[in-house]
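pls ignore typos typing on phone
magnesium ion + seq
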Amino acid sequence: MDIFAKDTIAAYATAATRGAVAVLRVSGGDSLRILKALTGRGAFEARHAYLVKIHDGKDILDTAVALYYQGPASYTGEDSFELSVHAGEYIKARLLELVFLLGARMAEAGEFTMRAYLNGKMDLAQAQGVADIIAAKNKSAHRAAFNILDGSLSERFKEIRAGLTELLAKIEVRIDDADDEMAPLPEVETREYIDGIIKKLEALSSTFGAGRLVKEGIKTAIVGVPNSGKSSLLNALLGFDRVIVSPVSGTTRDTVDASLRIKDFNLMLTDTAGIRADHADDAEAQGIERSRKAMNNADIIIFLADSDLDAKAQADILAQAQATGKKVLKVLNKTDLKSEGEISQSGEYDCLISCKSGAGIEALKDKIIEAIGLAKLGDDDILITSAAHYKALKDAERELNRAKARLKELELMAEHIRSAVLSLRRLIGEITPDDVLGEIFSKFCVGK
Ligand SMILES: Nc1nc2c(ncn2[C@@H]2O[C@H](COP(=O)(O)OP(=O)(O)OP(=O)(O)O)[C@@H](O)[C@H]2O)c(=O)[nH]1
Ligand SMILES: [Mg+2]
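k done
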């Protein structure tokens, strides 16, 4: 997309699916002229709602509510307007045609938000927050996106950048000081100062693990020997019978995915085929292979045990799960069948449940969130949710560590600090090549 296009763009801000009202958004220098021509109204005061008729030649297309925004006090920073019309197929299509006939063109994906960025209404990190907040499926993802959108994350970046620019200035005057009139940089203090900034960067980058889980959901694989109750657990967590449960070993032959929300988070659950060495046929063997893949893909593995089944086979599966390096929760199922004595000796398990009675299922949900490290998230916690942000933070950290090793070579130290500053400035979009911008905004949908 041409990022410096100044023509007038139009698109529906509302979804293409059925609804009662559709909102057409138009932005650019011709907005007011187009709005007047459409409605036959001579004047519009900014930020006032008007009940208008939309003219189509001699006919009236619809009665609508019009809102005119005068730039720069608008989302994009340009003159723009919104028309709320009845969401009929014909009305929507014809209105767009009329707007195009009056000189606007179709907006490209993300173009409204890109214009907002180019006009200084938000920085690049915040623009990412717009995409995230629309995509958020649960409360925690929404909160993380909100903290980005309202500028809290950008503030942190700017604060760190300002600290570095200050240090850079001190180094640069000394490089320029050919006659050695200035006192040299105090080494210990400078090192401490850089360390302090590295800590701030680390504090942010270390949230990426949690940020990714919050944004994308927690991939959870349920594994165990056949008949331990894996499918029963999937059903119990979901609250309805999604998969077949039966006393026959090897009931589940393929992996089955289901998604659910627990405690403000999204869980992507995978029920797997029970793993056993003496599988019945080739299909079961393939299913077992998929179970292993599911373990490797997971963020957390629930190892489901039944103490009445083959102990050696279960120990093998647990070892395989642990060998993946993922978090593993050891869960004992069918406690309704176990004696009090057996239960009191089951200290090696993280959780005791019965899929039949439902006992322990709620506690298991808490355990999952706790084990994955999301239990302590606060409302105002800023989370890094974008891989690009994470990389920029890590790049800056690396450059600062290099700078620290060059305390006596001012030119080299300055160069590394400049690189770190550059990474941070890229994050907020202070310097961004055009093609990178196009790439970022094209991931948005039209109308945003
Ligand atoms: N009493 C009791 N029975 C259970 C419990 N959980 C599962 N079962 C029973 O155990 C049997 C096996 O359950 P499934 O959920 O099909 O086990 P699975 O691990 O998915 O088995 P495969 O798909 O063959 O690997 C069924 O008869 C269930 O009704 C429980 O908590 N208590
Ligand atoms: Mg099963």
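The domain at 9-123 is CATH 3.30.1360.120 (Gyrase A; domain 2). The mean pLDDT is 89. more later
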